Amino acid sequence: MDVSSVRNTESESRVRVLPRDEGREHLLAMADILAKVMDTSIRIPGTSWSIGLDPLLGLIPGIGDVIANLIGTVILGIATRLQIPRIVLARMSLNLLINGTVGAVPIVGDLFSVWFRSHARNAALLREAALKPDRETHADWFYVAGIIGGTVGLLLLTIACIIWVIYKLWAVVSV
Asked: What is the pLDDT of residues 88-145, one digit of tens each?
């Protein structure tokens, strides 16, 4: 039995990981730093909580959440440059959309941004997808399908409520 053939089969890994690339590592480090600045750069004294620029920018009426999301799109740009799978890009975009939509609600949106930390989520998704290009994306598909399904469900519920209110108003007016 040839010992070298045994060693070759043992050393082969089952998960394909990209070789180390300094440019790729630099882009991932930039995404991590940006996520930290946006989500966890300022420690709240006396607590274990940290906040970043995202909820602070959200305090600026009208434009703060837009600025925070525009800064967050830099992580999406890095993901595109690293050729991350489209479904992961869709999930990252949905994270920004959720944060921007809920963040538009005064005070509650800022508290949501502190909890949700969309930039940190996106940086983690980016790092995972960039280091394991063959990773399973079933969870990403379920996430995207769930968000889209939930949005359609809320839309249908809103339409049903509007129709019900119009029906009740019509019944009151026509009596």
From this structure: 888 999 999 899 888 888 889 899 999 999 999 999 999 999 887 666 667 777 887 8
| Axis crossing angle, helix 118-131 with helix 22-39, rounded to the nearest 10 | 160
Parse the chain into domains and list their residue ranges. Answer: 19-135, 136-175
| Residue with token string 């921007």 | 100
Contact (CB, 8 A) for 42 and 28 = no
Dihedral of the alpha carbons of 66, 70, 71, 76, in degrees to the nearest 10? 140
How many other CB atoms sit within 10 Å of the CB of residue 167?
10
In sign, the C-alpha dihedral spanning 135, 139, 142, 147 is negative
pTM of the model: 0.70
Q: Rounded to a whole number, what is the largest CA-CA distance in the chain? A: 96
CA distance 135 to 170: 55
CA distance 80 to 132: 15
Contact call for residues 17 and 132 (beta carbons, < 8 A): yes
